[in-house]
Amino acid sequence: MKCFQVYLIVACVAVIASCQSTVKQTKDMTNGGRKWWKEAVVYQIYPRSFKDSNGDGVGDLSGLTSKLDYVKSLGVDIIWLNPIYASPNADNGYDISNYDEIMKEFGSMADFDTMLSEMHKRGLKLVMDLVVNHCSDEHEWFRQSRSSRTNPYRDYFHWWPAEKGKPAFRPGSFEVDGSGWRYDSLTNSYYLHYFSYKQPDLNWENPKLRQEIFAMMNRWFKKGVDGFRMDVIPFIAKDTTFPVVTEKELKEKYNGDWSQYMASGPGLHSYLQEMNREVTSKYDVMTLAEGAGTTKATAMNLVDPARKELDMSYHFEGVSLGYLPGEFKQMDPNGYKLTEFKKIYSEWDSVFAEKGWGTIYLGNHDQPRMLTRWGNDAPEFRVASSKLLSTFLLSMRGTPFYYFGDELGMSNIKFDKIEDYKDIETLGMYGQIKNNGGDLQRFLNGQKISARDNGRTPFQWDASVYAGFTTGDPWLKVNDNKATVNVEAAEKDPQSTLNYFRKLVQLRKDRKDVLVYGKYTLLDKDNPDVYAYLRDSGTEKVLVLLCFNKNGATFDLKGMKTGAEWINNLGPLKISGDQVQLQPYQACIVQLK
Ligand code: GLC
Ligand code: CA
């Protein structure tokens, strides 16, 4: 008996010691702990364009609820919905007139409650869009605020009395005159709007305003939503003396970029810490900054867990690559360089290598379709290149934000005429160019690649006249390629982009130690055609090979020994010696021995 006890003690000590030594050997790869939102795949739905249930041509919440089984079938965990609050829709819901009501076109609060409970029943979480840099000029706060200089809501917004002269320039993104100030004769004052004049900026210096916002967020969390994506959140803090910003200062301090200036206001981090204290720390929820104007040097300040602000942020450096400077979203005719692309994503990975957590995306409602922009939408390359881009998104470190329709390989609609566009951004830029006597045809050609409406066309369920999206007249035209690019066809084809995406999502889950948390290392950085990287969990290592060239390319393994191919969009790799011969747009995740 005694002997047995001694044996037990010895055995326990040995087990504890060996645990400690493995802990020592394998460094924590989880950047401060495993979290559901680090392991999740987020699926973004633009509700206006997903599914219309009542034939008015506009997607709605009941339509969305009716398609939740489809969303669940993808294997994704979280749905991010663009704004669904009451709104006059100057900027498709990014101009909110009541934060506690549902947009009439989208349905009622009862429809929302049903939708949320149907999501939760299926194990899907809901992340809402939080738009609190600005609201709508039709919001009650603004109606009050503009009514007189002494109204209690006056300080909910930024006013500049006209007797002080014209305020210093600030950009107003969607305005034909480019100005972020609008004169209001009612009180002989200008008000600030970083976007359109229908989107007056809220004054976060006012503690009452902050309390209203926090209370509103608490109400949504009490309803059960699982997080917020925070629209242009770095812009909430401003230098409210509104000093003149000279060209020289803009260049020297903000790299000539107004959004960097706008993201550098005093008070930002204290507001976010207050939000964390008053709201988000009370729930197990996810927060994501739309990191407009943030840089590699400043992004960590939003997401460093020790600072208690937000969980994740997304940057714009990747999606901004390849545009000509000084023009409205005009692509460089030579395209973009893959070496630059690799550099950007690798540098951003290193920002969050030790702490914090990044995200990865190529498409969203502010971007054209990823296939057209980053892959190749020619019929012969559509399937392969869209699978390649999905492989990239699902094999990088950082939470993937995947845009609805990309799993089908949807592509840009490429409107010919300005009349087809509905987006305030395109219409505003067109107006500015027209006023300045610029080249409108050049602009329209550019928009075929870069316009936001390309990413907003109705989702393609089937080959019918409106793609099964609506029985009425759709609010934005349906892409003709719905004839072949649609859910119904993709479901029947085991090789479809849709089924490939499902496999990728499953793979990321099954292999999360390496695919979610594993260390990322770029290989062969100067290779102009192949994006290759390692993911390494400490116990398992994989090589990701992505051939971005339409003629194929080679990759040198330099002695690395490949094992099982976890996924491959074009059949097994052709390897002879150390040389891998990759086919056009081939993508593969292969284990290393
Ligand atoms: C964000 C949104 C965009 C909107 C803008 C103004 O960038 O993603 O769609 O137009 O903010 O709210
Ligand atoms: Ca509808």
Keywords summarizing the entry:
binds calcium ion; globular; TIM Barrel; Oligo-1,6-glucosidase, domain 2; 593 residues; 4 domains; 20 helices; alpha/beta; binds alpha-D-glucopyranose; eight-stranded parallel beta sheet; five-stranded antiparallel beta sheet
Provide structural commentary.
There is one protein chain. The protein is an alpha/beta fold. The chain folds into 4 domains: about 1-30; about 35-135 and about 200-505, TIM Barrel (Alpha-Beta Barrel); about 140-190, Alpha-Beta Complex (Oligo-1,6-glucosidase, domain 2); about 520-593, Immunoglobulin-like (Sandwich), CATH 2.60.40.1180. The chain is built from 20 helices and 21 strands. An 8-stranded parallel beta sheet has the order 11-10-9-5-2-1-13-12. A hairpin with a 4-residue loop joins strand 15 (about 530-535) and strand 16 (about 540-545). The two termini are about 45 Å apart.
Morphology call: globular
CATH class descriptor of the largest domain: Alpha Beta
Number of strands: 21
Helix content: 25-40%
How many distinct folded domains? 4
Strand order of the largest sheet: 11-10-9-5-2-1-13-12
Mean pLDDT: 95
Give me a quick take on this structure.
The protein is an alpha/beta fold and 593 residues long.
What's the layout of helices and strands?
Elements: H1 2-25, H2 36-39, E1 42-45, H3 61-66, H4 68-74, E2 78-81, E3 85-86, E4 98-102, H5 109-121, E5 125-130, H6 140-147, E6 159-161, E7 181-184, E8 189-192, H7 207-223, E9 227-230, H8 247-254, H9 258-262, H10 268-278, E10 286-290, H11 300-303, E11 312-314, H12 317-320, H13 338-351, E12 359-360, H14 370-374, H15 382-395, E13 399-403, H16 424-435, H17 440-450, H18 487-492, H19 497-510, H20 512-515, E14 519-523, E15 530-536, E16 541-547, E17 553-556, E18 562-568, E19 574-576, E20 579-582, E21 587-592
Parallel strand pairs: 1-2, 1-13, 2-5, 5-9, 9-10, 10-11, 12-13
Antiparallel strand pairs: 3-4, 6-8, 7-8, 14-15, 15-16, 16-21, 17-20, 18-21, 19-20
Helix pairs in contact: 15-19, 16-17
Bound molecules: alpha-D-glucopyranose and calcium ion.
